[in-house]
Design goal:
The complex is a heterodimer. By secondary structure, chain A is an all-beta fold. In chain A, 0% of the residues lie in helices and 59% in strands. In chain B, 0% of the residues lie in helices and 48% in strands. The chains are: A mainly beta, B mainly beta.
Chain lengths: 113, 115
């Protein structure tokens, strides 16, 4: 059974700092990996989707990398802003599970002004 | 373009009572998902529909949970009777199709509190 782990569980940083969120998964037979953002009381917003054949994806100040063989992904946020404060979730899609996403527990990020 | 719509946003009920959640996916999205998210955890899939057909309901507690998507558009998830452990956020998501490379778009969720 696929297990997804996110470290750290919570992170508090001053505004302007660069930061890295980590995601690891136990079964490397994945189709793709997706990073989401969740604001309190709201649904999930997709940030980046990385196909298993890709090494990284970039969107603005966000960069996600994928090392499928070692079961790891990182989300890099440059020049963090208070508006980045949210919970960040990573999810993997198994090759054998169709469209089912397996989520980690998330990293709760607070960026202090 | 309207996103995934869910109602109600919040629901408080006493245990043993029934409850129902409604979801309207993005127009044209054939695949619909219901997830449950417990506090401090990531969402877990309950059921996936391809049009009207439930194609993955292996994680749906069928003794008390039921779902339907009669016309292949909007969907209802029901719990009867509710238990204290059912308190969670119930998220609906949709995608264009079942293919693995289609992104899933999530609604705001329904926060259920069972007292």
């Amino acid at each position: 059974k696929q297990e997804v782990t996110q470290i750290p569980a919570a992170l508090s940083v001053p505004e302007g700092e660069n930061l890295v969120l980590n995601c690891s998964f136990t079964d490397s037979a994945i189709y793709n990996l997706q990073w989401f953002r969740q604001d309190p009381g709201k649904g999930l917003t997709s940030l980046l989707l990385i196909q298993s054949s890709q090494r990284e994806q970039t969107s603005g100040r966000l960069n996600a990398s994928l090392d499928k063989s070692s079961g790891r992904s990182t989300l890099y946020i440059a020049a963090s802003q208070p508006g980045d404060s949210a919970t960040y979730l990573c999810a993997v899609r198994q090759e054998t599970s169709g469209s089912r996403l397996t989520f980690g527990e998330g990293t709760q990020l607070t960026v202090n002004p | 373009e309207a996103g995934v719509v869910q109602s109600p946003r919040y629901k408080i009920i006493e245990k043993k009572q029934p409850v129902a959640f409604w979801c309207n996916p993005i127009s044209g999205h054939n695949t619909l998902y219901w997830y449950r998210q417990n506090l401090g955890q990531g969402p877990e899939l309950l059921i996936r529909y391809e049009n009207e057909e439930a194609v993955d309901d292996s994680q749906l507690p069928k003794d008390r949970f039921s779902a339907e998507r009669l016309k292949g558009v909007d969907s209802t998830l029901k719990i009867q009777p509710a238990e204290l452990g059912d308190s969670a956020v119930y998220l609906c998501a949709s995608s264009l199709g079942p293919a693995e490379n289609y992104e899933q778009y999530f609604g705001p969720g329904t926060r259920l509190t069972v007292t």
